[in-house]
Each structure stands twice: as C-alpha cells, then as structure tokens.
Design goal:
Length: 50
C-alpha cells in the first residue's frame, strides 16, 4: 500500500492551493495541484492540472 498526502496552502481570503500526491515504493505515482477560489461560501476549482 502506498502513501497518500494532501495539504492546502492559503494565499489570502478566498484563495487557496490544494496539493495531493500518492507514492508507491518511494516513487510518486500520482500528483495533482488545484487553485481554488471561494464563491458564496463554496470552494470552486479555478485551475487544475487534471
């Protein structure tokens, strides 16, 4: 079983960057970054690498 890591970096009010990655045997097998904006209380994806 691999390791799953996810975290969020807050840039300012209503703007954040979400990172997510999975590793197996010490190698990254999946990586994702999203820029999200807050709109009326909900987080919306503005830019995604998926």
């Amino acid at each position: 079983m691999g390791k799953i890591v996810g975290f969020v970096v807050i840039f300012g009010e209503g703007i954040r960057k979400r990172h997510y990655y999975e590793t197996e045997k010490g190698k990254v097998v999946y990586f994702s970054v999203q820029l999200e904006i807050g709109v009326k209380g909900d987080w919306k994806v503005a830019i995604s690498d998926e």
